[in-house]
Amino acid sequence: MFDNANILITGGTGSFGRKFTSALTQRYKPNKIIIYSRDELKQSQMQQDYTQDCMRYFIGDVRDRDRLVMAMKNVDFVVHAAALKQVPAAEYNPMECIKTNINGAENVIHAALANDVKRIIALSTDKAANPINLYGATKLCSDKLFVAANNLTGFDKPGRFAVVRYGNVVGSRGSVVPFFKGLIDKNADHLPITDPRMTRFWITLQQGVDFVLDNFKRMKGGEIYVPKLSSIKITDLATAMAPQMKQKVVGIRPGEKLHEVMCPLDDSHLTLEFKKHYVIQPAIIFWSENGGQPDYVTDNSGEKGTPVPEGFEYNSGTNPHFMNAEEIRAFNRDAGIE
Asked: Would you report the helix, strand and coil content of the chain in percent, each value rounded to 5?
């Protein structure tokens, strides 16, 4: 699918963008990989690591519609990874978060439609499911924009939009693992625990990249894809990383949940279960060959799903599989984090 193709990644200098680029260059022979981001320093650093002839680097902000339209010329596939993601920063700077995460999403959609891009996947977050903070609310809005964008293409035109939603990426910038690791390296006297009941879904960056690549092949347009993952307890993570270190409860932060939800209960009537993932079907009806809703039960890879029971919720606190401290330690090692 990606051989001889032109692929653009917004926010391409971030953790996901770099890993996604690595996968593309190792597994396929793309014609162009366009890294679209606003940080010239990160682009300069990335150019030193990725020097293949297919690489292109565009300075630009997703808030700039004209620049996006120019960057997407002759592009086949887009991954929209650019976002303002820090929960406290979004609470203190709400309009900046809205401009990037909502207005920026609309600009990406406009540019993709203007250039007849074939397939577009936007990265979402668990925080978009039943959001309680501004960051989550903006990502929910972004998800709705990308699903509804399929209305603008029609059955007989190119342009299919889908969303991939997953939670905490092990070791990503700003996440708990590098935070704990920094405290351990500084010989701190304890690790702060927001709440001992707190749970999270656990995914490696490579798993996230592979999931996105697979969904480009599966998608018909309008789906929200959610991977099946293991859960962890935050106390078990602290024990796995520093078995002898004290843990101190410091209280939950503003806008933070005890448990992650990726498939809300209110969407159970729209949710399909596949072997390794869930699909939340769109609530709205748009194009198909016979004028009705596309058949999401069988995806474009031939995988078949089944409806989940009424009242189903995919919640990290009620997930059937939890990793213990030893499993977390092994998982983190596999992710390249010691």
From this structure: 40, 20, 40
The pair of three-digit structure tokens given for residue 183, joined into one six-digit string: 């405290």
Distance CA 327, CA 15 (A): 24
Q: Is 127 a catalytic residue?
A: yes
Say how many C-beta atoms besides its own lie within 10 A of residue 309's C-beta. Answer: 8
Other CB atoms within 10 Å distance of the CB of residue 295: 11
Burial class (CB in 10 A: 0-12, 13-18, 19+), 162: buried
Domain spans of the chain? 6-169+202-229+263-315
Q: One-letter amino acid identity for 282?
A: P
3-state secondary structure of 278: strand
Give, in words, the CATH class of 6-169+202-229+263-315. Answer: alpha beta
Residues of the chain with pLDDT under 70: 155, 173-174, 287-292, 338
Residues 199-227 have pLDDT tens digits of: 999 999 999 999 999 999 999 999 999 99
Starting at the earlier edge strand, list the strands of the sheet with 199-203. 168-169, 199-203, 230-233
Annotated active-site residue in 19, 42, 127, 257:
127
For β-strands 277-280 and 271-273, DSSP reports them as antiparallel
Amino acid identity for residue 54 in this structure? C
Q: Count the neighbouring beta carbons within 10 Å of the beta carbon of residue 113.
A: 19
Q: 327 exposed, middle or buried (CB, 10 Å; 0-12, 13-18, 19+)? A: middle
Those residues whose C-beta lies under 8 Å from the C-beta of residue 10, and which sit 6 or more positions away, are: 36, 37, 62, 68, 78, 79, 80, 81, 82, 104, 108
Which segments of the chain does DSSP mark as H helices, in order? 15-27, 40-49, 65-71, 87-92, 94-98, 104-114, 134-148, 176-185, 205-218, 234-241, 325-334
* Residue whose structure tokens are 């650019």: 82
Please state the three-class secondary structure of 1-61 as a single string: CCCCCEEEEECCCCHHHHHHHHHHHHHCCCCEEEEEECCHHHHHHHHHHCCCCCEEEEECC
The answer to whether the pTM exceeds 0.90 is: yes
Both structure tokens of 108 = 């990406």
63 with 40: CB under 8 angstroms?
no
Arithmetic mean of pLDDT over the chain: 93
